[in-house]
Design a protein that fits this description.
The structure holds four protein chains of four kinds. Chain A is an alpha+beta fold. Helices cover 23% and strands 35% of the residues of chain A. Chain A starts with a strand and ends in a 12-residue tail after the last strand. Chain D is globular and about 75 Å long. The chains are: A alpha+beta, B mainly alpha, C alpha+beta, D mainly alpha.
């Protein structure tokens, strides 16, 4: 029942939308595809759904060539980023539409529609038209339609991207329950938000410029990002990446005082490296290197302070909401024991250890 | 312009134009209740005050002695209009859907060229087409038949249907098609079950244009049908060619344009909602 | 720079509706000159109505709008000298960038030299000075929004700049830099800014003061920090912050406030005689404790949500759900049952859904 | 995707083939017949080379009709555009009874041109018609509307304006109604008055619609012949003759089939070339005007 992609390539007007994409999608697991906008996530979903062809590569399901299967026989449901429903049908008929196409009996249709509308919390909205619903409710209808069929493949293309953040938070929590038991369904979920991928994914695939850069469990990808690009995609705000040197037992980062090499970097040969440090591992302190605040963002319950130290930009994440004025001079302190080391091509060399009390989450 | 004079200016202009627009109808209406006495003395407008109204004109067109029968031409016009419009709408919607949703490429010919081919047929003057059509219908035995007239009228209406519908379909998100296919509909089912039900405003506008241009066609009917299948415009114009019994002509003319005026009253809201705006851009 | 006062303004789109159903319930607000304010709330909360009242598009059913003390309630938009940036970028399609920026000044019949100097000054601040001669319609959406902002800034005396969800159609990649640009520019020129958005992040990142609205009412006005640290109601506690503030229902035994039978001390006292008492605490301040102590309660772990650098622990405390945000390096409690501490200073008392005032 | 490729032709072909089949024969026939001497006494497809075309070059009546058509079509479409736009602006927003006005202003385009031309013929009647009657009331002399060339052209243009301004009105009103309201709010906020708002906002926004509406009307107007037939029969003399009407006389009434074929093709080619050029010029003119 696996869905396997091998070396999928698609170039449109000279731009690679998919480049050598190979992946195996397994039933019963939620695959979170994370990447920035235009990374090729949507294209990948459209290829899997059969809405888009490829230049080369293979797609197989149960050993059969899936590329030759037309859309309407792929046993696939999809939820779009925009809230797409049939405008002329009410909520009940929207959800019933694919079931009727599948030729189910009336009673069975009614049972399934009622059931899936209840699961998304829209039991009382059966006779409303989509245009009479809020954005969040419309997206729930789309979700109910996708779930009601119980298809073998369920594709979700940034389903929360167009919702208010409070609603996004709420639905994200609900998704954890909704998708916790997917039986034999292959679920693929795209997102631009690291927290969403981490929280929902059983498997995380990191995409960038049409390529899959890394595949693994959320923990693996987050704690061992294969390259600097992965490191910046899987962190929000993106991981601070800067150049530094290791030499004679000291780490030197431009502008900062040299510090002792911490244990996890000790066995690296001397030389120039790219270092990564999460925004949570840079702190504002009373002593340290001075920088100027260029911008302050507040996201949920965190304050992100953008600081320029000479030419190097840093993002500092502080818990809670704090008033920091633009143009202020602040002092930064780095936590050397939390440095990720990459070589000059950006390939991961060493990671800080997380094995303190770590227990597999969930 | 925001001065107090602006409303005066505005409603004066509206009123003047309204008089001009309504004038011919008023004239036809008042004339249709005249007889020789009401006409011969020069222009008169108000019944009872200026002339003695009669219904002789109206009686004439409904088979009164010495008049003409308009019911048969009316019926012919209706059949030709409805049939040609229906064929054009069906074929036009299908083609428009294809042109809106799929990419065609045949050498240097692309979608926009095909759309242009359809729409450009409106440039053909009827008089250029009518001679070849005459011989074509003569050879196929369709001259002076409803079927023959329907076929050539489709050539007039199909471009209109394609023109309106391509732009209307372009305004419907493609994701709806994709969703329907994912939901198990083949391409044809997708069109019928997901797209057509959402196209009623567009179909209404297209249908209205087809009916208007179909009903109002004169030249094809004039040269390709004679005695068997006379259409309403032909019948009215035939009245005009003889020494004008103005009252009969007026009554027949009003009878001939009435159906579409009623149609205009019904579909106005579709038209002004801006459903056409896509087609114009 | 103008101070805007909203005096008992209320509005209903249908006349004769009872006040409970008004789009905007009568309220009194002051927007100080030169400050940036954000109006935030879910759709239908009245924020857009309030903006339209300020711009003159909506004439309120009651109350007065004062610009620097002068009553402008009856004045049309054109006479109010405000600027507005809309959701969808609005530029004069047929004009160049320069002509767009000069347009409001031409309407005011400034002389050419003065217009030129002003337009160039504003264009430079907006980083548009190298594209002045380009047709404005060729610019990207974010630059078009800057032009809209610029059309307000060229007028020295502009009363206020109103922004109606200006980032809606901006590419996510560019939202960040446009937000930054807007903040820089408004700090440089210092107009009074009213910024409407449904996005809390945006509101708090851009504004000095945030006004949270719901169902046509102003729920709380304050700096982002105030909204976070001391939400005036359970609604604001829920609406601001992610995950939302935790609220747990309290009991009263022998005059003491208790949670699940154990005593709880809060930042300040709950007055006597309140019917529904709750404690509110941010997930950031809930601590996993290793040993029993004051304000420490047994918890049962329900779920762990991995957000990356932090994890959110969802647990049951005294019959209610509590979320705690813990750094990743702290790991996850080894057993399902453990203790949590609610630090006194961060545990706020709520009575009937409203924050109890510190006496 | 493979499957879709097979289906797309099934949607397109029925319509495309139907139209092509209906259109292709007349075109081929006309081309062939234009090189023949087919006429009423010699109805056969012989081959006489370009004789018809040579004759046509010297047919001043044909060329006069072409010139007349250009002036008639250009003039009436311009008037229709100005009035249509004006009326659309007047009933676009707040106007008392705007639904009524909208319907009324649409009605003429729904009526049959030949039928209405018959009515107009009565209206323009020299002694019994209301136009001269009204002129008389105003103390003006009677005009021989349909029997003198100048007035006949005016009468014909009046009928065209009456019949087709509604179409222009409809397209422009639809365009106006679909305009976003923000640019107008922005203009009000910037302090622009009504005239400035029209010149800088409404007109530029309506430019694409205007170009399309004018082109559509020019295409339809270039086929003018029905109304001529009923109203003036091309007279007096050939004073109101259009190519369409002249072709009718030559090809259908006098059955000079070969000769009319040559003229038909020339007429068609001239029209296509002219309209293409006009379309390009208009598109550029509206853009240039917008940019200044």
């Amino acid at each position: 029942m696996n869905l396997s992609a091998t070396d999928l390539c698609l170039t449109v007007d000279g731009v690679d939308h998919l480049k050598d994409v190979s992946a195996t999608f397994v039933p019963g697991r939620l695959h979170a595809v994370i990447g920035r906008t235009m990374a090729g996530k949507t294209t990948l979903l459209r290829v899997l759904a059969g809405l888009q062809g490829v230049d080369s590569g293979a797609l197989t399901r149960q050993g059969a060539d899936f590329l030759k299967t037309p859309v309407w026989r792929r046993d696939t449901a999809m939820v779009y980023q925009q809230f797409i429903n049939y405008p002329h049908l009410d909520v009940f008929d929207n959800v019933a539409f694919p079931l009727k196409r599948a030729g189910l009996a009336r009673d069975e249709i009614r049972r399934r529609v009622t059931d899936s509308l209840a699961r998304v919390g829209l039991a009382d909205f059966e006779r409303r038209k989509p245009s009479q619903l809020s954005g969040g409710q419309q997206q729930r209808v789309a979700l109910a339609r996708a779930l009601a069929r119980g298809t073998g493949i369920l594709l979700l293309d940034e389903p929360l991207a167009n919702l208010d953040y409070k609603l996004r938070e709420q639905l994200r929590d609900e998704f954890r329950t909704l998708f916790s038991d997917q039986g034999d369904t292959v679920v693929i979920y795209t997102t631009t938000e690291p927290a969403e991928a981490m929280m929902l994914g059983d498997v995380v695939l990191v995409m960038h410029e049409g390529r899959i850069l890394q595949t693994g469990s959320p923990q693996e990808v987050f704690e061992r990002p294969a390259t600097t690009t992965v490191a910046s995609i899987i962190n929000d705000p993106p991981m601070n990446i800067f150049t530094g040197r290791i030499g004679s037992g000291q780490v030197t980062v431009a502008g900062f005082q040299a510090t002792h090499v911490s244990a996890h970097l000790a066995d690296l040969p001397d030389g120039t490296y790219r270092f990564g440090l999460r925004a949570t591992d840079v702190g504002l302190a009373s002593a340290g290197v001075e920088g100027e605040v260029t911008f302050v963002e507040i996201s949920g319950s965190e304050t992100f302070v953008h600081v320029a130290v000479g030419e190097t930009p840093f993002v500092v994440q502080i818990e809670g909401i704090h008033d920091v004025a633009l143009g202020d001079l602040v002092k930064l302190r780095l936590r050397p024991e939390r440095l990720f080391a990459f070589d000059e091509e950006g390939t991961l060399q060493r990671t800080p250890s997380y094995d303190l009390t770590s227990v597999e989450g969930r | 312009m925001r001065s107090r004079l602006y409303p005066v200016f505005k409603y004066t202009m509206i009123a003047l134009w309204a008089c001009f627009v309504a004038g011919p109808f008023f004239w036809a209406m008042t004339t249709s209740f005249k007889d020789v006495n009401g006409v011969q003395g020069g222009a008169t407008y108000l019944p009872w005050l200026q002339y003695e109204p009669t219904v002789v004109g109206w009686r004439n067109i409904f088979g009164g002695a010495g008049g003409v029968d308009v019911m048969r031409p009316f019926f012919n016009s209706a059949v030709v209009t409805v049939a040609a419009s229906a064929v054009s709408l069906v074929l036009g919607s299908l083609a428009a859907y294809a042109l809106s949703r799929y990419r065609f490429k045949l050498g240097f010919i692309k979608n926009s060229d095909i759309v242009f081919f359809f729409v450009s047929q409106r440039i053909m003057p009827p008089v250029v087409l009518v001679i070849p059509f005459f011989y074509l219908l003569q050879w196929t035995g369709l001259l002076d038949t409803v079927l023959g007239l329907v076929i050539v009228t489709v050539a007039l209406l199909l471009p209109i249907a394609v023109w309106v519908m391509v732009d209307f379909f372009n305004g419907i998100p493609r994701e709806i098609d994709e969703m329907a296919m994912l939901d198990g509909c083949g391409p044809f089912q997708t069109f019928v079950r997901a797209i057509l039900p959402n196209s009623l405003p567009g179909l209404t506008v297209a249908a209205m244009f087809c009916v208007v241009f179909g009903w109002n066609d004169f030249f094809f009917a004039f040269r390709l049908t004679f005695t068997e299948v006379q259409t309403l415009p032909q019948a009215v114009v035939a009245l005009n060619s003889s020494i004008p019994p103005w009252w009969t002509l007026s009554a027949a003319a009003l009878f001939g344009v009435a159906p579409l005026i009623l149609l205009a009253l019904r579909v106005e809201r579709y038209l002004s909602k801006g459903n056409l705006s896509g087609a114009v851009r | 720079m103008t101070q805007l006062d909203i005096v008992d303004v209320g509005h209903s789109y249908r006349s004769g509706a009872e006040e409970e159903r008004w789009a905007l319930k009568p309220l009194r607000l002051t927007f100080e000159a030169g400050k940036t304010y954000a109006l935030v709330g879910p759709s239908g909360c009245g924020k857009t109505t309030l903006l339209n009242v300020l711009s003159g598009l909506v004439r309120p059913s009651q109350g007065h709008v004062l610009f620097d003390g002068a009553d402008v309630t009856a004045l049309p938009t054109r006479a109010r000298n405000i600027a507005q940036v809309f959701q969808f970028p609005v530029i004069y399609r047929s004009m160049t960038v320069y002509e767009n920026l000069a347009f409001p000044l031409q309407c005011r019949r400034w002389d050419k030299a003065r217009i030129d100097a002003k337009v160039r000054q504003v264009a430079e601040a907006l980083d548009l000075d190298d594209r002045l001669e380009q047709p404005a319609r060729r610019l990207t959406a974010d630059d078009k929004q800057l032009i809209s902002l610029g059309r307000g800034l060229v007028r020295d005396d502009v009363a206020a700049v109103l922004m109606d969800e200006p980032l809606t159609v901006i590419d996510p990649q560019l939202k960040h830099s446009l937000r930054r640009k807007i903040r820089e520019i408004t700090e440089q020129f210092g107009p009074t800014v009213i910024y409407v958005t449904h996005d809390q992040y945006e509101a708090m990142s851009i504004a000095q003061e945030v006004l949270v609205m719901k169902d046509g009412r102003a729920m709380q006005q304050g700096t982002p920090e105030q909204l976070f640290e001391a939400p005036s109601s359970t609604y604001v506690g829920y609406f601001i912050g992610s995950p939302a503030m935790n609220f747990l229902t309290l009991d009263r035994t022998d005059g003491h406030v208790t949670l699940g039978g154990r005593p709880l001390t809060m930042a300040w006292d709950m007055p006597e005689g309140t019917t529904e008492c709750q404690v509110g605490i941010r997930p950031e301040y809930v601590e996993v404790a290793t040993e029993p102590g004051p304000n420490t309660f047994p918890a049962r772990l329900r779920d762990v949500r991995d957000h990356g650098p932090q994890r959110v622990l969802v647990m049951e405390v005294a019959g209610g759900l509590v979320r705690a945000k813990v750094p990743r390096e702290d790991g996850v409690p080894a057993s399902e049952e453990f203790l949590v501490r609610l630090p006194r200073a961060k545990a706020l008392p709520y009575a009937d859904g409203r924050l109890v005032l510190h006496s | 995707m493979e499957a879709l490729r097979r289906h797309k032709s099934m949607f397109l072909l029925p319509g495309l083939l139907t139209l092509a089949l209906i259109i292709i024969f007349p075109l081929l026939f006309t081309i062939r017949v234009s090189f023949s001497g087919w006429n009423v006494s010699n109805p056969q497809l012989d081959f006489i080379g370009g004789a018809n075309y040579t004759a046509m070059l010297h047919d001043s009546r044909f060329w006069a009709s072409i010139t007349r058509l250009v002036l008639l079509a250009g003039g009436t479409v311009l008037i229709q555009y100005v009035i249509g736009f004006g009326m659309a602006l007047l009933v676009w927003r707040e106007a008392r009874g705007r639904r009524l006005w909208r319907v009324l202003f649409l009605v003429p385009m729904m009526t049959t041109p030949v039928v209405m031309a018959a009515i107009w013929q009565m209206i323009f009647h020299e002694s019994l018609g209301p136009v001269n009657d009204l002129l008389g009331m105003l103390g003006l002399t009677k005009v021989p509307w349909l029997t003198e060339s100048g007035p006949a052209l005016v009468a014909l243009m009046t009928v065209e304006v009456w019949q087709w301004t509604p179409f222009m009105f409809l397209l422009l009103l639809a365009g106006l109604l679909s305009l976003p309201k923000e640019p107008f709010m922005a203009a009000a906020i910037d302090g622009a008055g009504a005239w400035r708002t029209f010149r800088k906002v409404t007109f530029p926004l309506m430019a694409p619609v205007s170009v399309a509406a004018i082109i559509i009307r020019l295409i339809e107007a270039s086929k003018l012949s029905d109304s001529v037939y009923v109203l003036t029969s091309g007279g007096p003399g050939s004073a109101t003759e259009t190519p369409g009407y002249y072709l009718y006389i030559q090809g259908l009434r006098d059955q000079q089939t070969g000769y009319s074929g040559a003229m038909s093709l020339t007429y068609l080619v001239l029209m296509i070339v002219t309209l293409t050029v006009v379309a390009a010029l208009l598109a550029r003119a509206f853009k240039l005007k917008g940019a200044s």
